[in-house]
Write a structure and sequence with these properties.
Length: 268
Amino acid sequence: MASQDLSAPFTLYSYTYSICALMVQMAYEMRGSPREGRPDLKLERKMVDIGLESREQLSEFYLLKVNPKGVVPVLANEKVLDKPMPESIDISYYLADWYPSLLPVQHKEAIRELLEELHKISFKLLTFGTQTKYPSIAVDWMREQIQRPDISDEYKKALEYKAGLTKGWADNHSEADLAEAETRARAFCAKIIALMEKRPEEKDKITYIFGPEPTLLDAHVVVFLGRVYEKKRFDLLPPVLVQWHEQLRKTGMWERAVPAGTTLPPMW
Ligand SMILES: N[C@@H](CCC(=O)N[C@@H](CS)C(=O)NCC(=O)O)C(=O)O
């Protein structure tokens, strides 16, 4: 840690419709009480419009100072963190270190494994499908910028790196890739149901995957289910998870973590 001023507010670089940023926002809403001796963590959201009209994640400032990968979420706090922290899972573990009920010792391993498994599902493919022009339009735009004589060498290099990452998406959205994402989503949902079925007595109440207290797994899963639900992919979402998700959508936590009410971005 850069210093011990733990009351200094954190910035979460976020976007209204970024599923990974919303997972972090949900973890924050589910946070519980801070570890003894720590104040409540102050989290201020800074919206980065990643839509094709604005492309704020591709700005010189964002690529050079916030995240060379040009994605949200990122957690930053010059007074507490040595450098900005990208990756929704890493930010979530940081929150869990502050709020221990998010990662109970007895479920730690299961949560780690399932979060990894969840994040191997291509959210992009399930959201945008195989026909989206988003990645190729973004790559073309970055290649045009790289040709400009009036931009710095550092920014050019950063754009080249980011264009390479986005090209990876452009090159990997075949029907076979989508089918793989769907298979992974079904297998993942089945594992969540198996965990819930260990507690049949709580079937009709709003409880969480491991019991009455939410964990990081609930935070990530409920947002993922939100995206699948809003895409109306009920072939991937068993009724018991639809019911659970619908209950959580009616809570203040959902309202605060997902201020647009939906995780679904306007389609490009
Ligand atoms: N593995 C990263 C993925 C982050 C990510 O892909 N974010 C998307 C929004 S959900 C983004 O910022 N996309 C902008 C772009 O690709 O240029 C995480 O979990 O934080």
